[in-house]
Amino acid sequence: MTGWAVAGPSLALIKYWGKSSSADNTPATGSLAVTLAGLESRTEAAFDTRDSVVVNDEPQPLARFTPFLDNLRRELSLGDQGLAVVSTNNFPTAAGLASSSSGFAALAGAVAALSGSSLSRPRLSALARQGSGSATRPVYGGFTVFDAGATAAEPEHDEAFWPEFRVVLCVVREGAKATSSRTGMESSRLTSPYYGRWVETSPEVLAEARQALTHRDWGRLGPLVRQSYLRMFGTMFSAEPPLIYWQPESVALIHALAELRAEGYQAWETMDAGPQVKVFCPADQVRKLVAELDRRVPGLRYLTAEPGPGLRTGRKE
Ligand code: DP6
Fold it and tell me: 229 is in which domain, residue-wise?
């Protein structure tokens, strides 16, 4: 018997960075995110004599997974059975393309499916949180909100809500990142003098962005997206030691996008705990935008995605 699940990465327009409780893995700042189609984590789980986790054919150290698997066993009444987990991402892993969001959502879904219990989406979202805060969100498709202090994400608008909405992922580096989000956000909390203001000013940005999204208003949403990621990076740059995920090409892309906006593009970038730049823009601008970016910052790989469905799960013999 095998449980399987497929989840897309959850890319935040408004960022979660910092925890209100490390023990519960609840966020200090609320996030607004989109679940992406086409990019996927596919995970299978089966009972075994002991735990094992293989991601993209690489056996993983269990330290990052054991507390999560223990919690799943407890919540799903699986006793002390071992779990053999095999997962593949069809996009760069741990490089700031949100693979931990899709990975832990798919892992929670696969083990829940294996257990045979039919869990509600709020329950799955809360289970996925124990693996990664951002993994609460892609349990739902389309646009999602994970509020400050909350234990699960909530659906905001489904994947059909804004048919013209696209994300262009500019892959600056393919390798895994040096510092995980978990370590980075804790370091920001403990050492950045700006962390407190980041947390205090986040609710207003989130509330305004939710409004702007409801109206599908690029002109209002875009500057809020930019404000959220740059304020978040303010806490990273000012941490001790500083966290600098950006690479020269990341900065070149940020400048290129500002120039392109001045020429009329509605293309608004964001970044996460890695060097990649992700650009939100209308579908009819994608082709020319990628050509312009490629001309100004040559040699990068570009992926395009649209809002996608939430977690899918099943069981097979
Ligand atoms: C910058 O969800 O990876 O991508 O809960 O510690 O596993 P943990 O952190 P994680 O952090 C995501 C941070 C972010 C912003 C976001 O996705 O909201």
Answer: 165-305
